[in-house]
Amino acid sequence: MKKLFIVTFALLIVALSGCSGLAGIQPQKPVERPQTLYQTQVIDPASGTRLSIEALARKLSGVRVIVVGEYHGHPAAHLLQSQIQEALYRQNPLQVLSMEQFTLDTQSAVNAYLHNKTGEAELIEDADAWDNYRASYRPLVEFARLHNLPVIAANAPAHIVRCVGRSGRDYLNSLPANVRAELPEDPFMDTPGYRKKFDAALAGGHSTAGKLMRERMDNTYKAQLLRDNTMASRILQALEAYPGHQIVHTTGTFHSQEHLGTVALLHKRAPGVSVAVISPVVWPPEADKPPLAENRNKGDFLFFVQPLPEEYLSDERRKKAMSARFRQSAKDTCQEDSR
């Protein structure tokens, strides 16, 4: 009889473990290649294990600022951002959405939409929304609007960024006092390692350049710093304005990867604020396993995605497209700002 009881009890433990994860033990899901452009594989790089969205949210429960990097326009990244936003909200409804994709000078237009004073087409026009707003960022903003959550237009004004990139840091001296006051103190604050990474990305790893090219690259880097400092400052302002809230910030991965850019400036401006970085990584088609070892340092958590299709296979057509983009940007005169 005693033997029968022991066997029965053992079987019961096995059954309970399989159904409910006895004592919190859950079977590990294998890390598999994403099968569609919408799929992600979220990984804890410390252990190399796969995480569900719910498990990721639990790990982020005590973090003040969650920075979710993206490859702009990648559907898997944007879907994951929406899933993280919802999962974190279920844990803590005190949430603020902060977005690189809107600039601080459009905050009133964003607020008008959130308060149902304008329609979506008006938001897109008034806030100069990105071309892929409806496909990529609509779900985030609509979730915030549905649940009465603040949305922070976090980026620096686009025309100021462009003109700093063209004319240099002294361009800010031409701004009216009220416009300059909206920008962060020390708008070109820098942190170690970022310039080297930026130059490598911009110049393809070439370190030698003529004087004119070096000046252009320096101005372009100053424009990048203006973006990062503005986003860091806006996030910190949101933490002060909404005490007890958790900030979810969406941004291009270059601004947050390896805890550089905006994230490094957050740490420098407010060392006591906890920040977690979630970074995308492309799973190469030829790789049998996720390229984890060489990407562990890119974020506190990683999500693997399929590569996007190549935009151009023709070098000639690629160059023409890039030239057209530069011509469009060159329309700014960058004379003294009178706004």
Automatic annotation (TrEMBL):
Keyword Electron transport found: no
Signal sequence coordinates: 1-23
Keywords: Lipoprotein, Signal
Haem-binding uptake Tiki superfamily ChaN domain span: 56-265
InterPro entries xref list: Cofac_haem-bd_dom, Fe3_uptake_reg_CjrA_prd
Name by which UniProt lists this protein: ChaN family lipoprotein
Origin organism lineage: Bacteria, Pseudomonadati, Pseudomonadota, Gammaproteobacteria, Pseudomonadales
